[in-house]
Design brief:
Structural class: mainly alpha
Shape: globular
Largest sheet: 2 strands, antiparallel
Number of strands: 8
Strand content: 5-15%
Order of helices and strands: EEHHEHHHHHHEEHHEHEEHHHHHH
Number of helices: 17
Distance between the termini: 28 Å
Helix content: 25-40%
């Protein structure tokens, strides 16, 4: 008998409810007589399956499985440094230097969390089958529950596929370890999303932030985009764009504000709540608990991780026409780095700071905390005073996850060891991404006017001066200049279009967990990441780091391989 599959859990789920805490047992872990198998019970299982979207099993070390993928999608790319000091959470440095090992606790925790979500989805599916057989739920109830369960199962498998590449597809029939080699997981993911499309109502959403007819189409399109299957993605994207309920928010920063969660731009997002009676606000965003300015009044000032790279900040430079400097953006650092500081860590905290005189994309200062720029109502960002170890992590901090000063105590938790836990949703898909995917499809087809049009829909929102960071007197916080490609001759050729779209996706979604995976799926990781580590002379530990094609997927945890007795096989190169 093979070892019972390690990714199918049979433990009690602790489901944190906004009302109270409920201990909801997985149906397969208890005898059939104890399970009512009615709609009310299956509803609790569905909610428990959604609950794993935050990666939080026990309020412990949740940053290892954060749905924002800040370690796997950003620190591993050119957008961010680990931050903090060198010795704290040192395992992350292995991801930065493309040296993560199968024994790294981060991949272990992420694997367990992702496949716990799959296990819960399969528990729902089994309960539905048994409920239908027993006559305790109706066909209509069964279809709705099944559509949500299969949507979520597809989401969790998508996460596993993009992180580890070679993964098994675990459906409701699996009871033993099964091979992860030669498995067409994409086909099964697509089938689950298609089932959700076919069985969810077009005219309504069953629950706030949940699976829907429309976001299932967007997610299926994303699955095709990750396979560069543009022909399959195109009609789905067109339908979502032209007929769906989504649009761009008026202001870019409304995508990162608890007061505007589930906005018209939110296609699918992890839902959070704090101060709701759960244990230490367990429904809040524990995955990003480490990633707020250190030694600041924000929360408890914890902990100074996930600091934006110089390369990312430089990417927001624009030329005289307000267009990105696609090839030359990183030749010099903007004026947040003192050229006389041999550590290149940033300006000292004194009045000598000189603002950047060049043109900047206004999205920069909603993405990154920079010295001298207003910081969500907390005053001007002071620079090194709010960074834990500038020599290791640099002089910038992440901003999209930071709540406003006037929200203190309402959207962040008042309990726990770090009160930075907050209710700002984690975006999985935004409508701006859908537009940029459609631009990518158009560029591949050689339809350059359409490609530029979709990119400019995203840029036009960013170009609205009413949405720029302002000082107290109403003036712009920096020299913001952003223009449209269509006002400057459009895209001259396919190569330029592809480069511009990749760059635009970086600017628009920076620090949201997508960068590494986007480079890998487009076949650009080798070129971009090796140029990045070779060109960054500010972080000594990057010296000698090299990205190879085997680094496109992460190591499967050794514990999984061992417990499966080798049925699960390691990725090549680890």
């Amino acid at each position: 008998m093979k070892k019972i599959i390690t990714i199918i859990t049979i433990f009690t789920i602790v489901l944190f409810s906004c009302e109270d805490e409920l201990n909801v047992p997985i149906q397969s872990a208890i005898s059939g007589e104890e399970v009512p198998l009615n709609a009310a019970f299956i509803e609790t299982q569905v909610v428990a399956t959604y609950a794993m979207l935050d990666g939080n099993r026990d309020n412990t070390n949740v940053w290892r499985a954060a749905p924002s993928n800040w370690v796997y999608g950003e620190v591993t790319a050119d957008n961010a440094y680990k931050g903090s000091d060198a010795g704290d959470q040192s395992e992350i440095t292995a991801f930065e230097t493309y040296a993560a090992a199968p024994q790294n606790s981060y991949v272990d925790y992420k694997w367990v969390s992702v496949f716990e979500g799959i296990s819960r989805a399969n528990g729902v599916i089994n309960s539905i089958a048994n409920g239908v057989a027993a006559g305790t739920i109706t066909a209509e109830e069964a279809n709705a529950f099944m559509a949500e369960a299969r949507f979520l199962r597809a989401h969790y498998h998508f996460e596993a596929k993009k992180i580890w590449g070679n993964v098994p597809f675990v459906d409701e029939t699996v009871t033993e370890s099964i091979t992860n080699i030669g498995v067409d997981v994409w086909a099964a993911i697509e089938a689950d999303f298609q089932f959700a499309i076919d069985n969810l109502p077009e005219d309504k959403t069953l629950r706030v932030g949940g699976a829907s007819y429309w976001n299932a189409q967007a997610y299926l399109a994303k699955a095709h985009m990750y396979q560069l299957d543009y022909d399959a993605a195109k009609p789905l994207l067109d339908k979502v764009i032209n007929e769906g309920p989504y649009s761009l928010n008026t202001f870019f920063h409304d995508n990162f504000d608890a007061d505007t969660n589930n906005s018209i731009e939110s296609v699918f997002a992890v839902q959070y709540a704090v101060n709701d009676g759960s244990n230490d606000s367990s429904n809040g965003n524990y995955g990003d608990i480490l990633n707020h300015p250190h030694n600041s009044p924000i929360g408890a000032g914890c902990c100074g991780f996930f600091q934006p790279s110089h390369n990312l900040v430089n990417a927001f430079k624009t030329d005289a026409n307000g267009l990105p400097l696609l090839d030359t953006f990183n030749t010099t650092n903007i004026n947040n780095v003192d050229p006389n500081d041999t550590s290149a860590s940033g300006f000292p905290d004194d009045a000598s700071f000189v603002p950047e005189p060049g043109n900047l994309d206004p999205r920069l200062d909603w993405t990154v905390g920079r010295k001298g720029i207003p910081f969500n109502g907390w005053g001007d960002f002071p620079g090194l005073a709010w960074t834990r170890d500038p020599a290791n992590g640099g002089s910038y901090v992440s901003k999209k996850i930071v709540y406003r000063a006037d929200q203190q105590g309402t959207v962040n938790t008042a309990t726990g060891w770090a009160t930075t836990v907050n209710a700002i949703n984690t975006n999985i898909i935004r409508f701006s991404e859908v537009l940029l995917w459609r631009a990518e499809v158009a560029a591949d087809e050689g339809d350059l006017p359409m490609a530029a049009m979709y990119v400019d829909r995203v840029r036009a929102r960013a170009a609205n001066p009413a949405g720029w960071v302002k000082r107290d007197d109403g003036t712009d916080a920096a020299n913001y200049v952003i223009g449209l490609y269509t006002d400057n001759g459009g895209f001259p050729d396919i190569s330029f279009a592809e480069k511009a779209i990749l760059f635009e996706y970086r600017l628009e979604t920076a620090l949201e967990g997508h960068r590494f995976f986007d480079l890998v799926r487009r076949g650009k990781a080798n070129e971009v990441l090796n140029a990045y580590v070779a060109g960054d002379n500010t972080r000594g530990y990057l010296s000698g780091a090299t990205y190879t094609d085997t680094d496109a997927v992460f190591p499967i945890p050794q514990s999984v391989i061992d417990l499966s007795k080798g049925v699960i096989e390691q990725n090549t190169g680890y």
